[in-house]
């Protein structure tokens, strides 16, 4: 016989009292309310997943020894169709940073400034990867930070590092339990992280319907019209641009000075006709022919790799959700924002350069303002390092379930 004390209460006996309290409504319009609520949901999702979860089922990892020559390292990157690789110091048995295409761009600029073609062709045969940082110091360019995270770190923590350091990729390191040495497990790129969000947060992405124009994701032309501009001023400032008659080296200089990876190619009316990337430069010089840098962009594009995916464009009327759906379907690293029908009705020109959006811009927007979290982390570290609990303020860590109208919103 069943014990009556363990049975659920009868609905006729237990009645829930009707509440007379009303839930406070949001001050935001429904579309905007759903947009910010979805951003909160995505951030909560990232806090509940670790870097291991974003790994593909099968992948290969290319690791380069710092004693390897730059020329062989470049060949390795090209043969494996990758644009970066972790570096390993075999003498110290430790992680030594990342080799990226931008490092090669800096090297090209260094040779162009300081050496002849013949010396550059001879020196690159023996120059080792470990010397690249010294060259960057001579050029006065920013040194890449030595970043790392454990694969068991949450994706939210990894995204924080990518946003705060402006890095495009994050090495994931573990430790050998027997030797105690570092072990390079993988790298987490902005693209893989955003694609992971796009695949797993389908419902939330559908709510991200606000236009890019309103969200101001990316970098946009400061002066919408080129009329009445002072002579010599770039009408598309602060975006670096080039034409088909620009030489490759002039674009290489833009890459190195601005630490960017692509430059829109426009015609005399500002219409975007192509995009020149750092990878295109590497394709030119892989044979050691540095004279190719004298070529005009129009000629250099003829030597572009056949697998170039094309220029991905969007308009300011497109939504963030549409952009993430695109990342889900194809490999995208940046989008060129051009004037569309709406701008054309206002006197603009359809297809004219309006802005550029990188994956860094997208991830930064999704993560929101992290300054309050950095302050909370600093306070927590101060409290745990010996600061008395009476004098140290308690850290204020925002909840992932905060209201969409909270001040931490983008």
From TrEMBL:
It holds the Pfam family CBS. Residues 1-11 have a biased composition (Pro residues). InterPro entries: AMPK_gamma/SDS23_families, CBS_dom, CBS_dom_sf. Residues 1-29, 373-410 are annotated as: Disordered. It comes from the Eukaryota. Residues 142-204, 233-295, 307-374 form the CBS domain. Residues 376-410 have a biased composition (Low complexity). Belongs to the 5'-AMP-activated protein kinase gamma subunit family. This is CBS domain-containing protein. It comes from Collybiopsis confluens. The lineage of its organism: Eukaryota, Fungi, Dikarya, Basidiomycota, Agaricomycotina.
């Amino acid at each position: 016989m069943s014990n009556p004390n363990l049975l659920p209460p009868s609905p006729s006996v237990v009645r829930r009292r009707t509440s007379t309290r009303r839930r406070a409504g949001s001050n935001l319009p429904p579309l905007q309310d759903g947009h910010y609520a979805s951003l909160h949901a995505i951030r909560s999702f990232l806090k509940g997943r670790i870097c291991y979860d974003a790994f593909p089922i099968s992948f290969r990892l290319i690791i380069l020894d710092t004693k390897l020559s730059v020329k062989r390292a470049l060949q390795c990157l090209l043969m494996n169709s990758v644009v970066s690789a972790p570096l390993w110091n075999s003498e110290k048995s430790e992680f030594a940073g990342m080799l990226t295409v931008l490092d090669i761009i800096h090297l090209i600029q260094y040779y162009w400034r300081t050496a002849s073609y013949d010396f550059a062709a001879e020196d690159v045969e023996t120059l080792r990867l470990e010397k690249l940082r010294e060259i960057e110091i001579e050029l006065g360019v920013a040194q890449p930070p030595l970043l790392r995270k454990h694969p068991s770190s949450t994706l939210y923590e990894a995204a924080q590092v990518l946003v705060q350091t402006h890095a495009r990729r994050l090495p994931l390191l573990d430790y050998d339990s027997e030797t105690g040495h570092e072990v390079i497990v993988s790298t987490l790129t902005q693209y893989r992280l955003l694609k992971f969000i796009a695949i797993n947060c389908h419902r939330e992405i559908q709510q991200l319907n606000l236009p890019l124009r309103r969200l101001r994701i990316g970098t946009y032309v400061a002066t919408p019209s080129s009329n009445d501009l002072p002579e010599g001023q770039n009408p598309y400032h602060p975006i670096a641009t080039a034409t088909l008659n620009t030489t490759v080296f002039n674009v290489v200089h833009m890459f190195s000075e601005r630490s960017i990876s692509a430059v829109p190619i426009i015609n005399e009316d500002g219409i975007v006709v192509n995009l020149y990337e750092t990878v295109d430069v590497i394709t030119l010089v892989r044979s050691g022919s540095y004279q190719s840098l004298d070529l005009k962009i129009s000629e250099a594009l003829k030597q572009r790799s056949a697998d170039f995916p094309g220029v991905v464009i969007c308009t300011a009327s497109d939504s963030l959700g549409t952009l993430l759906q695109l990342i889900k379907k194809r490999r995208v690293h940046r989008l060129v924002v051009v004037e569309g029908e709406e701008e054309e009705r206002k006197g603009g020109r359809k297809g004219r350069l309006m802005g550029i959006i990188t994956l860094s811009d997208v991830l930064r927007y999704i993560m929101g303002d992290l300054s309050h979290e950095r302050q909370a982390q600093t306070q927590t570290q101060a409290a745990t390092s010996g600061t008395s609990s009476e004098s140290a303020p308690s850290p204020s860590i925002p909840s992932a379930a905060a209201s969409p109208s909270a001040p931490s919103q983008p």
